Amino acid sequence: MKILLACCSGMSTSLLVEKMKEAAAKKGIDCEIWAVSQDKAEEEMEKADIVLLGPQMRFLKYKLEEKAKEIGIPVDVIEPIAYGRCDGEAVLNKAMELIKK
Amino acid sequence: MNKFMSMMERYLLPAANKLNNNLYLAVLRDSFMLAFPLVIFGSIFVVIANLPYLDVILGDKAVETLRLVLDAAPNATMAIMTLFVVFGIGYNLSKHYKVEAIYGSVVAISSFLLLTPFNIKLDESGQVIGGVIPIDRLGAKGMFVGIIAGFLSTEIYRRIVQKKWTIRMPAGVPDAVSKSFSSLIPAVLTLSVFLAIRAVFLFTPWDNVHDFIYTNLQKPLLALGKGLPATLIAIFFVQLFWFFGLHGQIIVNSVFDPIWGALALENFEAFTAGAEKLPHIVNKYFIDTFTVGMGGSGMTLPVIVAIFFVAKSRQLKDLAKLAAPAGIFNVNEPIIFGLPIVLNPLILIPWIVAPLVVTAFTYFTMAIGLVPPPTGVAVPWTVPVFFNGILATNSLTGGILQIVNFVIVMIIWLPFLIIIDRQYYEKEKEQGGLK
After folding, report:
1. Cβ of residue A31 closer than 8 Å to a chain B Cβ
2. What is the pLDDT of residue B435?
3. How far apart are CA A18 and CA A33, in angstroms?
4. Residue A7 a catalytic site member
5. What 3-state class would DSSP assign to B295?
6. 3-state DSSP helix/strand/coil percent for chain A, to nearest 5?
7. Percent of chain A surpassing pLDDT 70
8. Considering only CA atoms, which of A90, A81, A79, A99 is closest in space to residue A4?
9. How far is CA B221 from CA A41, B133, B216, B386, B430, in A?
10. Residue B245 to residue A80, Cβ atoms within 8 A
11. Contact of A29 with A75, CB cutoff 8 Å
12. Helix, strand, coil percentages in chain B from 3-state DSSP, rounded to 5
């Protein structure tokens, strides 16, 4: 499972990446999680199974949705509270749920 | 209140969407970012050449030689910043239209140079020296001409390519050869347009496009953008967007970056030329260092420290611990979404008032000469507070000013933090009692 996170410069989402990796390791799930800045998001999407956006960049969703449909992956905005608390497990669960759909 | 919030959200989200996804603004932002590593390189050596007491340690003569050598670093990077921006516009815009990006960018550079005078008039004697490209035209002075030329040339170029007015080679001809032929007609036509523009301007009182755009567009825009009112309005909108959970900095920057960037570049040119007084107080590094550079947009590092001082509730204490390491490097999403600042009516007042007060105060101390304005040396926005203030202003007073600002922000926030903390604390006690 490959999860791409994107925000302005890929800094604040990278905090979350670490927490999600921890949560995944605990559950014994094999996955690749990485964060990029918004201008790289469109390129990196091709390698991912899902794209999650920092809530502060939720206006990017419109821009990325088109390409996401093309390659057939979901785009979603991370829930603000989970984002603020760096709740890796909650975000990981949501991502897995969306990929299964 | 809820009604008001949802109404604001209805207007702000589309506005953010438009500003951020506008093709030209997005291309411009990415093009400014292109020069970033080069600008940092130049800045490092400007900082080294201007270290305090260097002449005492090394002696005057050695310093002079050192500066002579190090001068090349900023000259090859920041001084010709506009070239990189033009290249970036040509490249990114062509890439968007899916035409050969590398040709789009060289055509953009040539188009820009076609508008540039190839001579310098010496001030004292009035003598004109030909066969040179004046370096200031490739820097701050030519910034707006560069932006316009970059967009205009790439738009013309890609239209001709997309109309397929190109020479197509038979199959079997090597790819590089056929590509260079396919861009032949579009390049020639685009550059002809710019040569014609150059020729027309020779017959106007401005003599060249550079002087025309500089006096009629760049100068008035910069004058407007560097004023305190415009700066406060920009900061207000950064805060307002963030209050609704949108990245205010990036949204507002997409409009202000060319202006703040050009102002920083003009300061930088004055600084490296040894000017005693720098021309502009407000510029890119004024914003980056004295507003964003105190823990992120909205100056939240003082807020974290204040929480450590007064908080009794578990929730705030935990949050401050989680947010502090990132906050030191000016990343503050944990605070913004965790406190939360987003859509929290109690926070709205300090959230908007504190940065405005600090911005006005910083402006004032620089206007009366207590602290020098930022020199235009590039300081990455992740450099921690105090250090970024010293680096940006090339003066210890820049760091001291930040400490004063730090205290101002804490004082403005304290009463509000205490109220929130009490609310959380009561709630936690209740829940604890129920268990």
Report:
1. no
2. 46
3. 9
4. yes
5. coil
6. 60, 20, 25
7. 100
8. A99
9. 33, 25, 9, 31, 57
10. yes
11. no
12. 75, 0, 25
Alpha helices (H) along B244-332:
248-272, 284-287, 301-310, 314-328
State residue A2 phi and psi, 5-degree precision.
-120, 115
More confident residue, A92 or B274: A92
Going by C-alpha positions, the residue among A69, A45, A36, A15 that lies closest to residue B324 is A15
Cβ neighbours around B407 below 10 Å, total: 12
Task: Look up tokens 């989200």; give the residue.
Answer: B13
DSSP B183-238: THHHHHHHHHHHHHHHHHHHTSTT-SHHHHHIIIIIHHHHHHHTSHHHHHHHHHHH
Give the model confidence (pLDDT) of B136-193 as tens digits: 899 989 999 999 999 999 999 999 999 888 777 777 778 777 777 788 899 999 999 9
What does DSSP say about strands B128-130 and B119-121: parallel, antiparallel, or unpaired? Answer: antiparallel
**Quick one: CA torsion of B92, B93, B98, B102, rounded to 10 degrees?**
-60
Location of structure tokens 């760049």: B218
A32 touches chain B (CB under 8 A): no
Closest CA to B65 of B75, B80, B79, B54: B54
Region of B267 please: left (phi>0), alpha (psi -120 to 50) or beta. Answer: alpha
> What are phi and psi for residue A51, nearest 5 degrees?
-115, 130
Compute the count of residue pairs across chains A and B with CB atoms less than 8 Å apart: 78
- Whether A60 and A32 have beta carbons less than 8 Å apart is answered as no
Helix (H) or strand (E) holding A37: strand A32-37
Q: From CA A89, how far away is CA A19, in angstroms rounded?
A: 7
CA A29 to each of CA A24, A73, B43: distance values in angstroms, whole numbers, following the listed order: 5, 20, 45
Residue for token digits 């503050």?
B332
Q: Are B301 and B389 in contact (CB under 8 A)?
A: no
Residues of chain B with confidence (pLDDT) below 50: 435
**CB contact A80 to B (< 8 Å):** yes
Q: What is the CATH number of the domain that holds A95?
A: 3.40.50.2300
Tally Cβ neighbours within 10 Å of residue B218.
22
State how far residue B12 is from chain A, nearest Cα, in angstroms.
Answer: 10
Q: Is residue A6 within a helix (H) or strand (E), and if so which, with residue range?
A: strand A2-7
A-chain CB neighbours of B30 within 8 Å are: 39
Angstrom distance (rounded) from CA A89 to CA A74: 19
Collect all residues with Cβ–Cβ distance below 8 Å to B290 and sequence separation of at least 6.
B358, B359, B362, B389, B401, B402, B405
Domain that holds residue A16: 2-100
Number of domains chain A contains: 1
- Name residue A51's beta-bridge partners: A4, A75
